[in-house]
Amino acid sequence: MSNIIGYLGPDLNGENVPSQIDQLKAAGANKIFQEHFSGTKGDRPQLDQLLANVRDGDTVVVTSLNRIAHNTRHLLEIVESLDASGVTFKVIDHGLDTSTPHGKVIRMLLGAIADFERQKVRESQALGIAKAKREGRYKGRKPTAMAKTDAVLALNDQGLTRQKIAEEVGIGVASVYRILKNNTIPKKTLKKVQKKSVDKSKRVKRKSTSESPAEQLSLF
């Protein structure tokens, strides 16, 4: 059974929370994950829990984009994680629905904007690194979430949940989903590979059994 799940990000003053909860319920949300302001910029435990518990066919709904993501790149990560799980994403204020053609176009635009932001960040980082090297202050890059790919894959092979993997390696659930998506063969592709392997084995077996005794003896 599919669910409509609401999410409400942290609110500094809390004045608009009741009306936003009403909006989520009016949109059909039968469960709401509400974040509480913790003072830590990247800490969103309720969002991590939501991403870990959604299932294929579910719908995640928010009142506005700024209530779920820090920036465009973070938003795209969330949308990609939901899409990988077969989950639809809806934004009430902007009328965004990733299951519609219009929503898919918006997602493409988000990807382009996020790529632009990444390029600008890389340029700024490159300038900063060059300056630090000139001044003898460069100590190398800190490990990123992708640097923990091997640990994520190993824990996944052990059967741990996405949420547990994130806690074990110290990264967000969205990063876990992205790593697994980039390093896991899709089921359809895997089935095709397996089918080709089976078909090849059958052909080899048929060829071997179809050879005459003379043909087989002539090999010696």
Tags for this model:
9 helices; 220 residues; five-stranded mixed beta sheet; Rossmann fold; single chain; alpha/beta; 2 domains; disordered C terminus; Arc Repressor Mutant, subunit A
Question: What is the secondary structure topology, with strand pairs?
Answer:
Layout: E1 4-8, H1 17-26, E2 31-34, H2 45-53, E3 59-62, H3 72-84, E4 88-91, E5 96-97, H4 101-134, H5 149-157, H6 162-169, H7 173-183, H8 187-210, H9 213-217
Parallel strand pairs: 1-2, 1-3, 3-4
Antiparallel strand pairs: 4-5
Structure in words:
This protein is an alpha/beta fold and 220 residues long. The chain has two domains: 4-141, Rossmann fold (3-Layer(aba) Sandwich), CATH 3.40.50.1390; 142-187, Arc Repressor Mutant, subunit A (Orthogonal Bundle), CATH 1.10.10. Helices cover 56% and strands 9% of the residues. The protein has a five-stranded mixed β-sheet, with helices on both faces. Strand 1 (4-8), helix 1 (17-26) and strand 2 (31-34) form a beta-alpha-beta unit. Helix 5 (149-157) crosses helix 7 (173-183).
